[in-house]
Design a protein that fits this description.
The chain is built from twelve helices and 35 strands. The radius of gyration is 26 Å and the shape is globular.
Length: 683
């Protein structure tokens, strides 16, 4: 028997033993549930385990990996308004354990087939005295982490209620290093990540929150299936104890709820290597099944658009002599897209409302009335004749009431004109409707209403100034991508010098753990002559590599069309897909470098992207992801010997060579540089 078959057989017997243990636990629960006060449940491969128990009638959990504690005893519960808290006085009424395993297919994504395999423990709690209110907690243990959620069953003594705090703790074993963003700031998620020791972080922090333990162990704390609830942020209490902090409504209430009611999943992803966090699909697996029956209209795409020219002050969103969204200008972009294998053209600034102080008050936006110099029927008819789709745009200025009052009509207007993609925006430093946090329950409800309405009208969404990604793309695959961190535009006008070279080497290990990001790569005119005080902190080769490193099913070729003319490097953007069969993280250190290879879903080609921070690097990678026994032609786009993101960003070398799976490839990355490779199988 060969070694591979031995491993398969060993894994089979191990799963049988785990299943028998779960059955035994279930049998025990039938006779001992009234007295048992602690439980252990393990992952399918046995490496990760979770303990749950009561101490002084309060609920606690802890997490282990290979017998080593990852999360110390951490408290669970709630503080409610005008009624007694649900945080102590518990007794266990019943518990149940089950196993689950399936492989499901994404309609689009970074990997076609997703394994969803876990062991589950459901604990039914009740108050020992008084009203004897009930609270259930569901724990799922995966090979790559743990998740849990609270369920408030329908019950006589708890109907409508208000959550003032969720007492969910993540008690860490040490003062780990953490990659964090501040939570309660006017620009939402659009701040650079900082790397500090946990006890050095003064701010409440957004999730995903990524931690390095220094012991070949990486953690990411996040949430999944954020639906009708406040987003979870985290703050540090005494010791190394992180506690959930729900983003409140303007009246101070965290969550309005009515039984039966379920919270989002609280998630802890666990990995030996940082790259393993990226290929963990636990967040997706914790979301509900697809609710869009027919997904044939949902299609990933590459696009160009009237966007960058406004950010570099070449044209304007509002009316005037430099108005960008004119019929004539849009047709030029359509011609370019049609000639270069780009499926869409984004048009911002086409509708009434841009001529005011819209970023502080968006109530002037009208989503069905174009400016006089933009003829939407002429534009969409012309696009259709060229095999290109218009990507619509709804900037709300955070005026959600105004947007929701027009939403049904606005989506029907786009549907009538054959517009199947909409980019939305919610720029307002004072919040939604001038008072509500974007990531409060108010905001979460609005974003869900938008994606559900869009689905009814066969429209795909690209949301800027969004709620963070928590995997709802599984439930609504028309929720394609979103911003949710500092994107390319900060390089055009950022007063702090734009995004530093390390920024893109941090995003895959932090923000992108939640889901795809519309980062808008592809800037070739890196020096930005229109804004001489700014430039993109990158080499040209790195801009190409970002199409592979930063995943999005909608990818923009963000620069002006004229900046791509006579540029051989643009061939990579023409060819790179946006829908993948498989994803492999070949190496990476957070904030330093990362190399990712992805296989095209619609061919046997592979594409590779590797990027660095401000340090030059030489990395050697194995090509064992290629199919053995076959030859591939590798077209390599790399930093040339004198490339440097500050003083020589355009120095690029394009070369070809024949490779096979048993070979290795040496990557030479300049300061702030990168490398992109297209592997095509030779017949």
């Amino acid at each position: 028997m060969n070694r591979k078959n031995q491993y398969v057989l060993r894994g089979f017997f191990y799963k049988v033993l785990i299943t028998l243990a779960l059955i035994l636990a279930f049998m025990v629960s039938g006779c001992d549930s009234a007295t048992k006060s602690s439980f252990e449940i393990t992952s399918p491969d046995g490496r990760v385990s979770l303990n749950f128990g009561l101490k002084n009638d309060s609920a606690f959990y802890s997490v282990f990996r290979q017998g080593n504690k990852v999360i110390e005893d951490s408290k669970l519960g709630f503080i409610l308004d005008e009624v007694d808290d649900l945080a102590s006085g518990f007794t266990i009424k019943e518990f149940n354990t089950t196993s689950f395993s399936e492989t499901w297919e994404q309609p689009w994504g970074e990997k076609r087939e997703i394994l969803n395999e876990y062991n589950e423990l459901v604990v039914n709690l009740s108050e020992r005295e008084g009203l004897k209110r009930r609270l259930d907690i569901i724990f799922r243990v995966f090979d790559d982490g743990v998740a849990f959620r609270y369920v408030f069953p329908e019950q006589e003594h708890l109907k409508e209620f208000r959550i003032m705090d969720e007492i969910t703790e993540f008690s860490l074993t040490d003062n780990h290093e953490v990659w964090s963003q501040p939570a309660y700031r006017p620009d939402r998620y659009e701040y650079l990540y900082s790397r500090k020791r946990l006890n050095e972080v003064a701010d409440t922090m957004h999730t995903p929150l990524t931690l390095e333990t220094g012991e070949d162990l990486y953690l990411s704390v996040h949430e999944a299936a954020l639906t009708d609830y406040a987003a979870m942020t985290l703050f540090l209490k005494e010791g190394n104890r992180l506690e959930c902090d729900l983003v409140p409504w303007s009246d101070g209430v965290k969550v309005y709820a009515e039984t039966p009611f379920s919270t989002p999943w609280r998630t802890i992803q666990i990995a030996e290597k940082p790259g393993d966090l990226i290929t963990s699909y636990m967040i997706l697996n914790l979301n509900e099944l697809n609710r869009v029956e027919d997904v044939s209209w949902i299609k990933p795409a590459k696009y160009v658009g009237i966007w960058w020219e406004m950010h570099i002050n070449k044209s304007t969103w509002g009316q005037g002599p430099n108005h960008g969204a004119t019929t004539e200008n849009v047709k030029k972009y359509i011609d370019f897209a049609s000639e270069n294998n780009l499926g869409g053209v984004l048009v911002e600034g086409w509708n009434l409302g841009w001529d005011s102080d819209w970023w502080n008050d968006g109530n002037g936006f009208n989503f069905t009335t174009p400016y006089p110099d933009f003829d939407i029927k002429e534009v969409t008819d012309y696009a259709a004749s060229k095999g290109v789709e218009l990507i619509g745009h709804h900037e709300t200025g955070g005026a959600v009431d105004n947007y929701e009052a027009q939403m049904e009509e606005a989506y029907a207007f786009y549907e009538k004109h054959g517009v199947n993609y909409i980019k939305t925006g919610y720029v307002n430093p004072r919040g939604m409707n001038g008072k509500e946090w974007h990531h409060s329950q108010f905001g979460v409800r609005h974003y869900r209403k938008a994606v559900e309405t869009a689905a009814r009208h066969h429209i795909m969404l690209d949301v800027h100034e969004p709620i963070k990604a928590t995997g709802i793309r599984r439930t609504y695959p028309n929720m394609m991508t979103r911003e949710g961190s500092r994107g390319m535009e900060f390089n055009a006008w950022g007063a702090d010098g734009g995004n530093p070279p390390e920024h893109e080497t941090i995003l895959p290990f932090t923000r992108l753990l939640g889901g795809p990001m519309d980062f808008t790569p592809g800037i070739f005119n890196i020096s930005i002559p229109e804004n001489p005080n700014n430039q993109v902190n990158t080499t040209l080769a790195k801009q190409l590599a970002l199409y592979v490193v930063i995943y999005s099913p909608l990818q923009m070729a963000a620069d002006l069309p004229e900046n791509y003319l006579n540029q051989p490097a643009f061939q990579f953007i023409r060819e790179v897909p946006v829908d993948w069969e498989d994803t492999r993280v070949l190496n990476g250190e957070i904030g330093e470098y990362i190399t990712i290879a992805r296989q095209d879903r619609n061919s046997e080609d592979w594409f590779l992207g590797s990027i660095s921070d401000e340090e030059e690097r030489t990395l050697t990678i194995s090509l064992d992801f290629l199919e053995p026994g076959h030859k591939y032609n590798a077209v390599i786009y790399r930093d040339d010997t004198q490339a440097h993101y500050k003083n020589n960003p355009l120095d690029i070398l394009i070369e070809e060579r024949e490779v096979t799976s048993d070979m290795s490839l040496t990557l030479q990355l300049a300061s702030g540089g990168g490398q992109a490779v297209h592997f095509s199988k030779l017949e």
